[in-house]
Amino acid sequence: MKRSTMTALALTVSAGLALTACGGAKPAPGSGSDSKADAYAPVTIGKGYTTKGGNINVLMSSDFQTLDPGNSNYVQTANVGQLYYRTLTMAKETAGRPPTIVPDLATDLGKPSADGLTWTYTLKKGVKFEDGTPITSQAIKYGVERTYARDVFTQAPQELNSALADDGYKGPYSGGDFKAIDTPDDHTVVFHLKQPFAEFPALVSRSNTAPVPRAKDTRLDYTNHPVSSGPYKIKSYDRGRSMKLVRNDQWNPATDPNRPALPDTFTFTLSTAQATISQQLLADSDPTAITLDSNGGLQASDAAKLNDPKVKARTAAGLLGCTDVLNFNTETIKDPQVRKAMALSIDRSAVQVQYGGGRFGKLAQSYINPAQRGYVEQHTDLDPTGKPKLGEAKKLLEGKKVPKKLVYGYADTNARYKNVGTVLQQNFKKLGIDLQLRPIPAANYYTVLAGDQMPDIARSGWCGGADSGSVRTTIDPNVGPSLDGKTYGFSNIPRYHDPKISGDMYKLRGTNGPSEELGKKWATLFDRAMQDYPLVPLVRSYTSSVVGSKVRNAQMGYFFGAIDLSIVGAEH
Length: 572
Prior knowledge:
Elements (H helix, E strand, L loop, with lengths): L2 H12 L40 E5 L15 H10 L4 E6 L2 E7 L7 E2 L5 E5 L14 H10 L12 H5 L17 E5 L2 E5 L7 H4 L28 E7 L3 E6 L17 E5 L4 H10 L5 E3 L17 H4 L2 E14 L7 H10 L2 H7 L6 E3 L26 H7 L8 E7 L3 H15 L4 E7 L4 H6 L6 E7 L8 H8 L19 H11 L5 H16 L4 E12 L4 E2 L16 E2 L2
Parallel strand pairs: 1-10, 1-11, 14-15, 14-16
Antiparallel strand pairs: 2-3, 4-5, 5-7, 6-7, 8-9, 9-10, 12-16, 12-17, 13-17, 18-19
Helix pairs in contact: 8-10, 13-15, 14-15
Protein backbone atom coordinates (compact mmCIF):
# COMPACT_ATOMS: atom_id res chain seq x y z
CA MET A 1 0.00 0.00 0.00
CA LYS A 2 1.34 3.43 -0.87
CA ARG A 3 1.06 6.18 1.70
CA SER A 4 -0.39 8.49 -0.94
CA THR A 5 -3.47 6.26 -0.91
CA MET A 6 -3.63 4.72 2.51
CA THR A 7 -3.00 7.88 4.45
CA ALA A 8 -5.92 9.55 2.81
CA LEU A 9 -7.91 6.86 4.53
CA ALA A 10 -5.90 6.68 7.69
CA LEU A 11 -5.54 10.38 8.21
CA THR A 12 -9.13 11.22 7.59
CA VAL A 13 -9.51 9.48 10.91
CA SER A 14 -6.38 10.37 12.83
CA ALA A 15 -5.63 13.84 11.54
CA GLY A 16 -9.19 14.94 12.09
CA LEU A 17 -9.06 14.69 15.87
CA ALA A 18 -9.49 18.31 16.83
CA LEU A 19 -9.82 18.04 20.60
CA THR A 20 -7.02 19.46 22.72
CA ALA A 21 -8.55 19.16 26.16
CA CYS A 22 -6.29 19.13 29.17
CA GLY A 23 -4.85 15.87 30.45
CA GLY A 24 -7.27 15.79 33.34
CA ALA A 25 -10.16 14.53 31.21
CA LYS A 26 -11.69 11.36 32.58
CA PRO A 27 -11.51 8.18 30.48
CA ALA A 28 -14.32 7.47 28.07
CA PRO A 29 -17.05 4.94 28.88
CA GLY A 30 -15.45 1.54 29.10
CA SER A 31 -11.98 2.94 28.62
CA GLY A 32 -10.69 2.81 32.17
CA SER A 33 -6.99 3.56 32.37
CA ASP A 34 -3.90 1.85 31.03
CA SER A 35 -3.46 0.00 34.31
CA LYS A 36 -6.87 -1.65 34.25
CA ALA A 37 -7.69 -4.93 32.56
CA ASP A 38 -10.59 -3.37 30.64
CA ALA A 39 -8.63 -0.33 29.48
CA TYR A 40 -10.10 1.10 26.31
CA ALA A 41 -12.63 -1.70 25.96
CA PRO A 42 -15.15 -1.24 23.12
CA VAL A 43 -18.66 -0.05 23.97
CA THR A 44 -21.55 -0.90 21.62
CA ILE A 45 -25.01 0.61 22.05
CA GLY A 46 -28.12 -1.58 21.53
CA LYS A 47 -26.18 -4.66 20.48
CA GLY A 48 -28.18 -7.49 18.93
CA TYR A 49 -31.01 -5.39 17.49
CA THR A 50 -32.58 -7.07 14.42
CA THR A 51 -35.82 -5.20 13.66
CA LYS A 52 -36.06 -3.67 10.20
CA GLY A 53 -37.55 -0.25 9.50
CA GLY A 54 -37.16 3.38 10.47
CA ASN A 55 -34.63 6.01 9.46
CA ILE A 56 -31.09 6.91 10.51
CA ASN A 57 -30.24 10.60 10.28
CA VAL A 58 -26.53 11.13 9.69
CA LEU A 59 -25.32 14.60 10.73
CA MET A 60 -22.16 15.76 8.97
CA SER A 61 -20.27 19.03 8.92
CA SER A 62 -19.30 18.67 5.25
CA ASP A 63 -20.10 16.70 2.13
CA PHE A 64 -18.26 13.56 1.08
CA GLN A 65 -15.12 14.12 -0.96
CA THR A 66 -16.59 11.67 -3.45
CA LEU A 67 -19.08 8.80 -3.61
CA ASP A 68 -17.34 7.17 -6.58
CA PRO A 69 -15.80 3.89 -5.36
CA GLY A 70 -13.14 4.23 -8.04
CA ASN A 71 -11.96 7.61 -6.80
CA SER A 72 -12.05 7.25 -3.05
CA ASN A 73 -9.45 6.97 -0.31
CA TYR A 74 -11.61 8.39 2.45
CA VAL A 75 -12.97 6.48 5.40
CA GLN A 76 -16.30 8.32 5.30
CA THR A 77 -16.90 7.20 1.71
CA ALA A 78 -15.81 3.66 2.59
CA ASN A 79 -18.28 3.65 5.49
CA VAL A 80 -21.32 4.90 3.56
CA GLY A 81 -20.14 2.91 0.54
CA GLN A 82 -20.99 -0.31 2.37
CA LEU A 83 -24.63 0.66 1.85
CA TYR A 84 -24.62 1.14 -1.92
CA TYR A 85 -21.77 -0.95 -3.31
CA ARG A 86 -20.33 -4.40 -2.78
CA THR A 87 -16.85 -5.75 -3.50
CA LEU A 88 -15.40 -9.22 -4.09
CA THR A 89 -14.55 -9.53 -0.41
CA MET A 90 -15.46 -7.32 2.52
CA ALA A 91 -13.60 -6.06 5.60
CA LYS A 92 -16.19 -6.84 8.27
CA GLU A 93 -15.78 -4.59 11.30
CA THR A 94 -15.66 -5.74 14.92
CA ALA A 95 -15.50 -3.07 17.62
CA GLY A 96 -11.97 -2.73 19.00
CA ARG A 97 -10.53 -5.38 16.68
CA PRO A 98 -9.10 -5.45 13.15
CA PRO A 99 -11.75 -6.33 10.55
CA THR A 100 -12.23 -9.88 9.32
CA ILE A 101 -12.06 -10.42 5.56
CA VAL A 102 -15.17 -12.29 4.41
CA PRO A 103 -16.62 -13.11 0.97
CA ASP A 104 -18.99 -10.49 -0.46
CA LEU A 105 -19.80 -10.67 -4.18
CA ALA A 106 -17.45 -13.65 -4.43
CA THR A 107 -18.31 -17.14 -3.22
CA ASP A 108 -15.11 -17.39 -1.17
CA LEU A 109 -11.87 -15.59 -0.38
CA GLY A 110 -10.31 -16.64 -3.66
CA LYS A 111 -8.24 -19.53 -4.91
CA PRO A 112 -4.49 -18.88 -5.37
CA SER A 113 -2.30 -20.78 -7.80
CA ALA A 114 0.53 -22.89 -6.42
CA ASP A 115 3.06 -20.13 -7.10
CA GLY A 116 0.81 -17.44 -5.60
CA LEU A 117 0.84 -15.35 -8.79
CA THR A 118 -2.78 -15.97 -9.79
CA TRP A 119 -5.98 -15.55 -7.75
CA THR A 120 -9.35 -16.70 -9.06
CA TYR A 121 -12.77 -15.56 -7.84
CA THR A 122 -16.25 -16.80 -8.70
CA LEU A 123 -19.23 -14.46 -8.38
CA LYS A 124 -22.33 -15.49 -6.45
CA LYS A 125 -25.47 -16.17 -8.43
CA GLY A 126 -28.35 -13.72 -8.29
CA VAL A 127 -26.36 -10.51 -7.71
CA LYS A 128 -27.75 -7.51 -9.61
CA PHE A 129 -27.35 -3.79 -10.09
CA GLU A 130 -30.14 -1.45 -8.99
CA ASP A 131 -31.64 -1.51 -12.52
CA GLY A 132 -31.97 -5.29 -12.43
CA THR A 133 -29.10 -6.13 -14.77
CA PRO A 134 -26.76 -8.93 -13.59
CA ILE A 135 -23.43 -8.06 -12.01
CA THR A 136 -20.80 -9.75 -14.17
CA SER A 137 -17.09 -10.37 -13.99
CA GLN A 138 -16.65 -7.78 -16.75
CA ALA A 139 -18.21 -5.11 -14.47
CA ILE A 140 -15.73 -6.06 -11.73
CA LYS A 141 -12.84 -5.78 -14.18
CA TYR A 142 -14.08 -2.44 -15.47
CA GLY A 143 -14.32 -1.10 -11.92
CA VAL A 144 -10.64 -1.92 -11.43
CA GLU A 145 -9.70 -0.52 -14.86
CA ARG A 146 -11.14 2.90 -13.98
CA THR A 147 -8.79 3.22 -11.00
CA TYR A 148 -5.83 3.22 -13.38
CA ALA A 149 -7.03 6.49 -14.95
CA ARG A 150 -5.10 8.62 -12.48
CA ASP A 151 -5.37 11.64 -14.78
CA VAL A 152 -9.14 11.53 -14.17
CA PHE A 153 -9.45 9.96 -10.73
CA THR A 154 -6.72 11.57 -8.66
CA GLN A 155 -7.70 9.78 -5.45
CA ALA A 156 -8.13 6.31 -6.96
CA PRO A 157 -7.07 3.59 -4.48
CA GLN A 158 -3.81 1.99 -5.58
CA GLU A 159 -3.06 -0.86 -3.15
CA LEU A 160 -4.57 -3.51 -5.41
CA ASN A 161 -3.10 -1.95 -8.53
CA SER A 162 0.42 -1.98 -7.14
CA ALA A 163 0.17 -5.76 -6.71
CA LEU A 164 -1.11 -6.48 -10.24
CA ALA A 165 1.00 -7.19 -13.33
CA ASP A 166 -0.44 -4.25 -15.26
CA ASP A 167 2.38 -3.45 -17.77
CA GLY A 168 1.86 0.32 -17.60
CA TYR A 169 -1.89 0.32 -18.23
CA LYS A 170 -3.38 3.85 -18.06
CA GLY A 171 -7.10 3.16 -17.72
CA PRO A 172 -10.05 2.51 -20.06
CA TYR A 173 -10.14 6.04 -21.48
CA SER A 174 -6.59 5.85 -22.86
CA GLY A 175 -6.92 2.67 -24.90
CA GLY A 176 -4.81 -0.43 -24.53
CA ASP A 177 -5.58 -3.89 -23.23
CA PHE A 178 -5.73 -4.54 -19.49
CA LYS A 179 -4.02 -7.91 -19.13
CA ALA A 180 -3.80 -8.09 -15.35
CA ILE A 181 -7.37 -9.42 -15.08
CA ASP A 182 -9.02 -12.15 -17.16
CA THR A 183 -12.78 -12.77 -17.32
CA PRO A 184 -13.16 -16.18 -19.02
CA ASP A 185 -16.92 -16.04 -18.39
CA ASP A 186 -19.52 -13.81 -16.73
CA HIS A 187 -18.91 -15.29 -13.29
CA THR A 188 -15.12 -15.70 -13.11
CA VAL A 189 -12.45 -13.09 -12.34
CA VAL A 190 -8.76 -14.02 -12.57
CA PHE A 191 -6.07 -11.68 -11.20
CA HIS A 192 -2.40 -11.88 -12.27
CA LEU A 193 0.13 -10.62 -9.71
CA LYS A 194 3.70 -9.34 -9.96
CA GLN A 195 4.70 -11.45 -6.97
CA PRO A 196 2.95 -13.55 -4.32
CA PHE A 197 0.82 -11.61 -1.85
CA ALA A 198 -0.59 -13.74 0.97
CA GLU A 199 -3.04 -11.01 2.02
CA PHE A 200 -4.53 -10.63 -1.46
CA PRO A 201 -8.12 -11.29 -0.27
CA ALA A 202 -7.81 -8.04 1.71
CA LEU A 203 -6.78 -6.11 -1.39
CA VAL A 204 -9.96 -7.08 -3.24
CA SER A 205 -12.05 -5.83 -0.32
CA ARG A 206 -11.06 -2.29 -1.31
CA SER A 207 -13.42 -0.23 -3.43
CA ASN A 208 -11.46 -1.03 -6.62
CA THR A 209 -13.53 -4.18 -7.06
CA ALA A 210 -16.92 -2.49 -6.70
CA PRO A 211 -18.61 -3.32 -10.02
CA VAL A 212 -19.26 -0.47 -12.45
CA PRO A 213 -21.41 -0.95 -15.58
CA ARG A 214 -19.40 0.45 -18.48
CA ALA A 215 -22.49 1.95 -20.12
CA LYS A 216 -23.30 3.96 -16.96
CA ASP A 217 -19.78 5.35 -16.41
CA THR A 218 -19.97 9.16 -16.49
CA ARG A 219 -16.38 9.60 -15.30
CA LEU A 220 -16.17 12.43 -12.73
CA ASP A 221 -19.97 12.81 -12.72
CA TYR A 222 -20.34 9.20 -11.58
CA THR A 223 -20.00 10.48 -8.00
CA ASN A 224 -23.48 12.03 -8.31
CA HIS A 225 -25.16 8.63 -8.70
CA PRO A 226 -22.94 5.55 -8.52
CA VAL A 227 -24.99 2.55 -9.66
CA SER A 228 -25.89 0.50 -6.60
CA SER A 229 -24.91 -3.12 -6.07
CA GLY A 230 -25.70 -2.98 -2.34
CA PRO A 231 -28.83 -2.91 -0.16
CA TYR A 232 -29.48 0.83 -0.67
CA LYS A 233 -29.47 3.22 -3.61
CA ILE A 234 -29.32 7.00 -3.90
CA LYS A 235 -32.77 8.54 -4.20
CA SER A 236 -31.60 12.16 -4.04
CA TYR A 237 -28.32 13.96 -3.63
CA ASP A 238 -27.99 17.74 -3.32
CA ARG A 239 -24.24 18.32 -3.16
CA GLY A 240 -23.16 20.07 0.01
CA ARG A 241 -26.66 19.95 1.48
CA SER A 242 -28.32 16.55 1.78
CA MET A 243 -28.57 13.00 0.52
CA LYS A 244 -31.16 10.25 0.94
CA LEU A 245 -30.66 6.52 0.54
CA VAL A 246 -33.59 4.15 0.10
CA ARG A 247 -33.79 0.39 -0.22
CA ASN A 248 -32.51 -1.19 -3.44
CA ASP A 249 -35.22 -3.71 -4.37
CA GLN A 250 -32.77 -5.58 -6.63
CA TRP A 251 -30.47 -6.43 -3.73
CA ASN A 252 -30.77 -10.09 -2.77
CA PRO A 253 -30.23 -10.56 0.99
CA ALA A 254 -29.68 -14.29 0.43
CA THR A 255 -26.37 -13.38 -1.24
CA ASP A 256 -25.32 -10.93 1.49
CA PRO A 257 -25.06 -12.20 5.07
CA ASN A 258 -22.81 -9.28 6.04
CA ARG A 259 -25.30 -6.41 5.80
CA PRO A 260 -28.52 -6.71 7.82
CA ALA A 261 -29.83 -3.53 6.12
CA LEU A 262 -32.11 -2.65 9.03
CA PRO A 263 -33.29 0.95 8.42
CA ASP A 264 -35.64 1.68 5.53
CA THR A 265 -33.80 4.91 4.80
CA PHE A 266 -30.67 6.90 5.60
CA THR A 267 -30.83 10.68 5.42
CA PHE A 268 -27.66 12.77 5.44
CA THR A 269 -27.42 16.44 6.34
CA LEU A 270 -24.11 17.62 4.90
CA SER A 271 -23.54 21.15 6.20
CA THR A 272 -24.19 21.15 9.95
CA ALA A 273 -21.58 22.92 12.08
CA GLN A 274 -19.65 20.55 14.33
CA ALA A 275 -20.61 22.53 17.42
CA THR A 276 -24.27 22.09 16.46
CA ILE A 277 -23.80 18.37 15.84
CA SER A 278 -22.25 17.99 19.26
CA GLN A 279 -25.08 19.91 20.95
CA GLN A 280 -27.83 18.00 19.13
CA LEU A 281 -26.37 14.59 19.94
CA LEU A 282 -25.71 15.40 23.59
CA ALA A 283 -29.25 16.82 23.99
CA ASP A 284 -30.81 13.87 22.11
CA SER A 285 -32.87 16.37 20.10
CA ASP A 286 -33.09 13.79 17.29
CA PRO A 287 -33.28 10.25 18.75
CA THR A 288 -32.31 8.66 15.42
CA ALA A 289 -29.23 10.81 14.81
CA ILE A 290 -25.58 9.80 14.52
CA THR A 291 -22.52 11.45 12.99
CA LEU A 292 -19.55 10.31 10.92
CA ASP A 293 -17.46 13.34 11.89
CA SER A 294 -14.15 12.65 13.63
CA ASN A 295 -14.37 12.17 17.39
CA GLY A 296 -18.13 11.99 17.09
CA GLY A 297 -18.22 15.72 16.36
CA LEU A 298 -17.50 16.40 20.03
CA GLN A 299 -16.04 19.77 20.98
CA ALA A 300 -13.43 20.13 23.70
CA SER A 301 -15.87 22.16 25.78
CA ASP A 302 -18.39 19.29 25.61
CA ALA A 303 -16.01 16.48 26.64
CA ALA A 304 -16.99 16.52 30.33
CA LYS A 305 -20.63 15.92 29.39
CA LEU A 306 -19.71 12.35 28.43
CA ASN A 307 -19.66 11.62 32.16
CA ASP A 308 -23.41 12.31 32.44
CA PRO A 309 -25.00 8.84 32.95
CA LYS A 310 -27.74 9.59 30.42
CA VAL A 311 -25.16 10.56 27.79
CA LYS A 312 -22.84 7.72 28.74
CA ALA A 313 -25.66 5.24 28.05
CA ARG A 314 -25.78 6.55 24.47
CA THR A 315 -22.02 6.68 23.81
CA ALA A 316 -20.42 4.11 21.54
CA ALA A 317 -16.65 3.92 21.90
CA GLY A 318 -13.64 1.90 20.90
CA LEU A 319 -9.98 1.77 20.03
CA LEU A 320 -9.23 2.44 16.40
CA GLY A 321 -6.55 0.79 14.32
CA CYS A 322 -5.00 4.23 13.84
CA THR A 323 -1.71 5.16 15.49
CA ASP A 324 0.27 8.38 15.24
CA VAL A 325 4.06 8.28 15.18
CA LEU A 326 6.98 10.67 15.02
CA ASN A 327 9.27 10.02 12.04
CA PHE A 328 13.00 10.77 12.18
CA ASN A 329 14.51 11.55 8.78
CA THR A 330 17.27 8.93 8.73
CA GLU A 331 19.04 10.76 5.89
CA THR A 332 19.62 13.83 8.08
CA ILE A 333 19.70 12.19 11.53
CA LYS A 334 21.92 9.30 10.51
CA ASP A 335 23.19 7.86 13.81
CA PRO A 336 20.72 5.30 15.29
CA GLN A 337 22.05 6.02 18.78
CA VAL A 338 21.33 9.73 18.39
CA ARG A 339 17.82 8.89 17.21
CA LYS A 340 17.36 6.58 20.19
CA ALA A 341 18.54 9.29 22.59
CA MET A 342 16.07 11.73 21.07
CA ALA A 343 13.28 9.16 21.35
CA LEU A 344 14.04 8.50 25.03
CA SER A 345 14.07 12.24 25.80
CA ILE A 346 10.51 12.78 24.54
CA ASP A 347 7.80 13.28 27.16
CA ARG A 348 5.17 11.21 25.37
CA SER A 349 2.74 11.68 28.26
CA ALA A 350 2.81 15.42 27.49
CA VAL A 351 2.24 14.61 23.83
CA GLN A 352 -0.79 12.54 24.86
CA VAL A 353 -2.19 15.62 26.58
CA GLN A 354 -2.10 17.43 23.23
CA TYR A 355 -4.26 14.64 21.81
CA GLY A 356 -6.90 15.34 24.44
CA GLY A 357 -5.57 13.09 27.19
CA GLY A 358 -6.46 9.50 27.97
CA ARG A 359 -10.06 9.94 26.86
CA PHE A 360 -9.02 10.22 23.22
CA GLY A 361 -6.08 7.88 22.91
CA LYS A 362 -3.72 5.49 24.67
CA LEU A 363 0.04 5.65 24.55
CA ALA A 364 1.41 3.31 21.91
CA GLN A 365 4.58 1.27 22.36
CA SER A 366 4.71 0.14 18.73
CA TYR A 367 3.23 0.91 15.32
CA ILE A 368 1.77 -2.61 15.34
CA ASN A 369 -0.40 -4.08 18.08
CA PRO A 370 -1.26 -7.55 19.44
CA ALA A 371 -4.66 -7.56 17.72
CA GLN A 372 -2.96 -7.71 14.32
CA ARG A 373 -2.36 -11.07 12.69
CA GLY A 374 1.24 -12.25 12.92
CA TYR A 375 2.15 -9.97 15.83
CA VAL A 376 5.14 -10.96 17.94
CA GLU A 377 6.27 -9.15 21.08
CA GLN A 378 8.11 -5.95 20.30
CA HIS A 379 11.09 -4.73 22.31
CA THR A 380 11.49 -1.06 23.19
CA ASP A 381 13.25 1.05 25.80
CA LEU A 382 10.46 3.65 25.75
CA ASP A 383 8.79 4.12 29.12
CA PRO A 384 5.27 2.62 28.96
CA THR A 385 3.87 5.57 30.92
CA GLY A 386 5.34 7.99 28.40
CA LYS A 387 7.78 9.63 30.80
CA PRO A 388 11.15 10.70 29.36
CA LYS A 389 14.41 8.96 30.23
CA LEU A 390 16.64 12.03 30.09
CA GLY A 391 19.60 10.58 31.98
CA GLU A 392 19.77 7.54 29.73
CA ALA A 393 19.38 9.76 26.66
CA LYS A 394 22.27 12.03 27.65
CA LYS A 395 24.51 9.04 28.32
CA LEU A 396 23.83 7.70 24.81
CA LEU A 397 24.99 11.02 23.35
CA GLU A 398 28.38 11.01 25.09
CA GLY A 399 31.05 11.26 22.42
CA LYS A 400 28.45 11.58 19.67
CA LYS A 401 28.09 14.35 17.10
CA VAL A 402 24.77 15.85 18.15
CA PRO A 403 22.89 18.08 15.66
CA LYS A 404 22.58 21.63 16.96
CA LYS A 405 19.48 22.54 14.95
CA LEU A 406 16.66 20.43 13.57
CA VAL A 407 13.31 21.16 11.93
CA TYR A 408 9.94 19.71 12.91
CA GLY A 409 7.30 19.98 10.17
CA TYR A 410 3.61 19.88 10.98
CA ALA A 411 0.29 20.16 9.12
CA ASP A 412 -0.95 23.71 9.59
CA THR A 413 -4.68 22.95 10.03
CA ASN A 414 -4.53 21.59 13.55
CA ALA A 415 -3.17 23.45 16.57
CA ARG A 416 -2.48 20.14 18.26
CA TYR A 417 0.32 19.28 15.87
CA LYS A 418 2.03 22.60 16.54
CA ASN A 419 1.58 22.02 20.27
CA VAL A 420 3.27 18.63 19.92
CA GLY A 421 6.17 20.48 18.35
CA THR A 422 6.34 22.79 21.35
CA VAL A 423 6.64 19.75 23.63
CA LEU A 424 9.45 18.40 21.46
CA GLN A 425 11.22 21.79 21.55
CA GLN A 426 11.29 21.67 25.34
CA ASN A 427 12.46 18.03 25.39
CA PHE A 428 15.23 18.38 22.81
CA LYS A 429 16.52 21.61 24.34
CA LYS A 430 17.70 19.51 27.27
CA LEU A 431 19.88 17.58 24.80
CA GLY A 432 21.32 20.79 23.36
CA ILE A 433 19.19 20.62 20.22
CA ASP A 434 17.38 23.70 18.95
CA LEU A 435 14.16 22.51 17.28
CA GLN A 436 12.53 24.86 14.80
CA LEU A 437 8.82 24.49 13.97
CA ARG A 438 7.82 24.68 10.31
CA PRO A 439 4.14 24.73 9.28
CA ILE A 440 3.29 22.80 6.10
CA PRO A 441 0.01 23.31 4.19
CA ALA A 442 -2.15 20.32 5.07
CA ALA A 443 -3.20 19.70 1.47
CA ASN A 444 0.47 19.20 0.52
CA TYR A 445 1.70 17.66 3.75
CA TYR A 446 2.43 14.12 2.56
CA THR A 447 3.72 15.35 -0.78
CA VAL A 448 6.31 17.38 1.12
CA LEU A 449 7.19 14.43 3.35
CA ALA A 450 7.74 12.25 0.28
CA GLY A 451 9.90 14.87 -1.49
CA ASP A 452 13.13 16.79 -1.17
CA GLN A 453 11.71 19.16 1.46
CA MET A 454 11.15 16.45 4.06
CA PRO A 455 12.00 18.01 7.45
CA ASP A 456 14.19 16.30 10.04
CA ILE A 457 11.17 15.26 12.09
CA ALA A 458 7.51 14.85 11.11
CA ARG A 459 4.37 13.27 12.52
CA SER A 460 2.25 10.81 10.54
CA GLY A 461 -0.59 8.38 11.16
CA TRP A 462 -1.57 4.93 9.92
CA CYS A 463 -4.54 2.64 10.41
CA GLY A 464 -2.57 -0.53 11.00
CA GLY A 465 -4.11 -3.76 9.80
CA ALA A 466 -7.32 -1.91 9.22
CA ASP A 467 -8.10 -3.64 5.98
CA SER A 468 -6.76 -7.12 6.63
CA GLY A 469 -5.66 -7.40 10.26
CA SER A 470 -2.15 -8.26 9.10
CA VAL A 471 1.00 -6.67 10.51
CA ARG A 472 2.44 -6.55 6.99
CA THR A 473 -0.01 -3.83 5.99
CA THR A 474 1.62 -1.56 8.56
CA ILE A 475 5.25 -2.66 8.40
CA ASP A 476 5.93 -2.82 4.68
CA PRO A 477 4.52 0.63 3.76
CA ASN A 478 6.10 2.46 6.68
CA VAL A 479 9.64 1.04 6.87
CA GLY A 480 9.83 -1.31 3.88
CA PRO A 481 12.06 -1.03 0.79
CA SER A 482 11.22 0.23 -2.69
CA LEU A 483 9.68 -2.04 -5.32
CA ASP A 484 13.13 -3.05 -6.53
CA GLY A 485 14.51 -3.36 -2.99
CA LYS A 486 17.39 -0.96 -3.65
CA THR A 487 16.28 1.95 -1.48
CA TYR A 488 13.45 2.98 0.87
CA GLY A 489 9.83 2.67 -0.24
CA PHE A 490 7.73 5.56 -1.50
CA SER A 491 5.61 5.81 1.68
CA ASN A 492 8.54 5.09 4.02
CA ILE A 493 8.56 8.57 5.60
CA PRO A 494 11.70 8.10 7.76
CA ARG A 495 13.53 6.89 4.62
CA TYR A 496 14.70 3.87 6.58
CA HIS A 497 16.82 1.41 4.60
CA ASP A 498 19.18 -1.05 6.23
CA PRO A 499 20.97 -3.34 3.75
CA LYS A 500 20.33 -6.49 5.80
CA ILE A 501 16.91 -5.81 7.33
CA SER A 502 15.44 -4.14 4.25
CA GLY A 503 16.94 -6.87 2.09
CA ASP A 504 15.22 -9.51 4.20
CA MET A 505 11.92 -7.61 3.87
CA TYR A 506 12.33 -7.52 0.10
CA LYS A 507 12.87 -11.29 0.02
CA LEU A 508 9.90 -11.83 2.32
CA ARG A 509 7.61 -9.97 -0.10
CA GLY A 510 8.11 -12.72 -2.64
CA THR A 511 7.55 -15.54 -0.17
CA ASN A 512 4.37 -17.59 -0.34
CA GLY A 513 2.79 -19.27 2.68
CA PRO A 514 0.26 -18.92 5.52
CA SER A 515 -0.37 -15.26 6.41
CA GLU A 516 0.07 -15.89 10.16
CA GLU A 517 3.48 -17.44 9.61
CA LEU A 518 4.56 -14.70 7.21
CA GLY A 519 3.20 -12.05 9.57
CA LYS A 520 5.46 -13.28 12.38
CA LYS A 521 8.44 -12.96 10.09
CA TRP A 522 7.42 -9.41 9.18
CA ALA A 523 6.92 -8.52 12.86
CA THR A 524 10.34 -9.95 13.78
CA LEU A 525 12.02 -7.87 11.07
CA PHE A 526 10.07 -4.82 12.22
CA ASP A 527 11.31 -5.34 15.78
CA ARG A 528 14.88 -5.41 14.47
CA ALA A 529 14.28 -2.23 12.46
CA MET A 530 12.84 -0.43 15.47
CA GLN A 531 16.09 -0.89 17.39
CA ASP A 532 17.43 1.74 14.96
CA TYR A 533 14.64 4.14 16.01
CA PRO A 534 13.51 5.44 12.62
CA LEU A 535 10.24 6.42 14.27
CA VAL A 536 8.66 6.83 17.70
CA PRO A 537 5.12 5.58 18.43
CA LEU A 538 2.93 8.22 20.06
CA VAL A 539 -0.81 7.69 20.51
CA ARG A 540 -3.33 5.12 19.34
CA SER A 541 -6.75 6.71 18.86
CA TYR A 542 -9.72 5.97 21.09
CA THR A 543 -12.96 7.52 19.85
CA SER A 544 -16.34 8.13 21.48
CA SER A 545 -19.50 8.93 19.54
CA VAL A 546 -22.83 9.89 21.12
CA VAL A 547 -25.91 8.57 19.28
CA GLY A 548 -29.64 9.22 19.51
CA SER A 549 -31.68 7.27 22.07
CA LYS A 550 -33.43 5.19 19.38
CA VAL A 551 -30.23 4.15 17.58
CA ARG A 552 -29.24 0.51 17.95
CA ASN A 553 -26.20 -1.60 17.00
CA ALA A 554 -24.05 1.52 17.27
CA GLN A 555 -20.51 0.18 16.99
CA MET A 556 -17.33 2.22 16.60
CA GLY A 557 -15.58 0.99 13.48
CA TYR A 558 -11.96 0.03 14.08
CA PHE A 559 -11.05 1.43 10.66
CA PHE A 560 -13.85 3.93 10.02
CA GLY A 561 -13.38 5.83 13.26
CA ALA A 562 -17.13 6.39 13.30
CA ILE A 563 -20.39 4.47 13.69
CA ASP A 564 -20.40 1.44 11.35
CA LEU A 565 -23.33 2.13 8.99
CA SER A 566 -23.56 -1.45 7.73
CA ILE A 567 -25.12 -2.82 10.93
CA VAL A 568 -26.82 0.18 12.60
CA GLY A 569 -30.58 0.14 13.24
CA ALA A 570 -33.30 2.44 14.56
CA GLU A 571 -36.29 1.85 16.80
CA HIS A 572 -39.50 3.16 15.28
